[in-house]
Amino acid sequence: MNKLKQNDLVVVLAGKDKGKTGEITRILDNDRVFVSGINMIKRHTKGNPQAGQPGGIIEKEAPLHISNIAIFNRDAGKADRVGIKTLEDGKRVRVYKSNGEQIDS
User: Fold this and answer.
1) Does residue 59 form part of some domain?
2) Which candidate, 13, 14, 11, 9, places its Cα nearest to that of 24?
3) Over the stretch 33-85, which tens digit does the pLDDT of each residue have?
4) φ/ψ (deg, to 5) at 16
């Protein structure tokens, strides 16, 4: 079971965007994630009139390593760690390490 999932609210722990929060939009296989509005880079692209793509400077998100983000605990208002807990019926759920509350409803 993955500890972080798509649409989780996370906070950046290291890098130029340290302290900013955003939602995970995509998770890559090599332990990298895309977070909305975080780690924005500028790419200079050449236009392609046949495909209808304009040229210029395009700003887009770059992936962050999963070790540089942590899940945001809305109740505590700070970054938290994720644990896995097995319920009585055998179902595994994600919980916050600080208070033991379930992340998934």
Assistant:
1) yes
2) 9
3) 999 999 999 999 999 999 998 899 999 999 999 999 999 999 889 999 999 99
4) -70, -20
